[in-house]
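Dear colleague,

As promised, here are the two records you asked about, laid out in our usual form so they can be pasted straight into your sheet.

NAME FIELD: protein one
SEQUENCE, THEN STRUCTURE:
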Amino acid sequence: MFEWTSLATFMLAATLLIVVPGPAVLYIVARSIDQGRLAGIVSVLGIALGAVVHSLAAAVGITAVLAASALAFSTVKYLGAAYLIYLGITTLLKKPEPQEKIVVEPKPLWQIFRQGFVVNLLNPKTALFFLAFLPQFADPVRGSVSL
C-alpha cells in the first residue's frame, strides 16, 4: 500500500514537471491548431502510448541501461533530435500557397498518432523522468508496485 503524503508529493512534483513544455506539448499544440480538437486528442493518445512504453521500460530495467550507458543515452537523444529536425524540415519544405488558396490537407489520424508516439518514445526527458524522478517515490521496503 502507498502513503497518501507520498502520493500527494508525487502528484505535485509531476504536475510541476509536466507544466514545462517539451516536444510532446509542442506537437500536441501544433496538431490541434493545424487540424482541430480530434487531431489533438489523437496526438495525445500517441504520446500516452509512448509514456506506457517508457513505464514498461523502467519496470524491466531498460531505462537504467540508458542511464548507465552514455552511448545508449546519446543514441536515443540524437535519434529524437533527428526526428524533430525531420518533422521541422518537412514542414519548412512545403511549398507556400497564396493566401487565398491556403487549404491545409489534413494528416491521417493514424499518422498523427504514430508521430506522437515516436515524439514521446525518442524524448530523453521522458526517459529521465522515469529513471530519476519515479524512484524518489518508491519505497523498496514496501515491496514492488503492480503496474
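NAME FIELD: protein two
SEQUENCE, THEN STRUCTURE:
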Amino acid sequence: MPPSDDRVERARPSVRSALEEGWHTLTAHVWTLIVAVLIYVAVESLSNVFSVPPGPGGPQQVVSVISPLGSILVTGPLVVGLAYLSLRAVRGFEPELDDLLAGFRRYVAAAGGMLLYGLAVTVGLVLFVVPGLVAMVRLSFTPYIIVDRELDPLDALRASWAATGGYAWSLFGLLMVSLLILVGGLILLIVGAIPAIAWIATSWAAYYERATRTAGETAPGDADPVVT
C-alpha cells in the first residue's frame, strides 16, 4: 500500500525538521562534533593567514589570485570530510575524527567538486547577487553527494542541482537561518561560533538525508556513506 500524501509531506525536509534533527544529532555527539569543527576552523584560519594579499602588479598580483584556489585544495576536502562526519552522525553511526579525512580519501572528487562549487558561486555573486545565491542553494548537496554516491566533480554538481530542484526556497530559508545562527554564535564572544557551525553542519546533513530519502535515493536505516 503506497504511503499517504500526509505521510509523504511529513517526510519531506523543511527548515524546522532539519534544525531539530541537527540539534538532536549535535547533542548526541557533541564533543566529537565540537572538536571536528575546531580542527576545521583552525585549518581554514591557517589557509587564510598564508594567502597572499593583492599587490600592485607583477608576480604578487598573480599569486594573490592563485592562492585562494590553492586554499580550496586543502579546505575543500576538509569541507567534504565534515559533511561526511555529519552525515554519518545523522544516520545513527558513531562519528569519528578520522571521518574528517574522508575528503582526502577521494581527493580529486572532493577538491575538484568544491573548487567548481566555489567558482560557480563566486562568478554568480560577481555577475549579479541572485545567480550566486541560486548556485549556493542548488549546489549545496555537492559535498554530501561526493561521499555518498562516489560521483566525479561535475556529476556531483549536476546531481545536487537535480536533487535540490523542489527545495530551492526551503534551502534558501535554511541558509538564512544558518547565517543567523552563526551571527548569534559570533556575538557570544566568538566561542559560540564553534557549536553554531556544528549545529549548521548537522542540520544541512539532516536536510540532505531527508531530501534523498523522500526522492527514494536512500532508505531508512541506510548504510554508511560510501567513503570508508
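A couple of things worth noting about protein two: The chain has a mean pLDDT of 84. The longest helix spans residues 59-90.

Best,
R.
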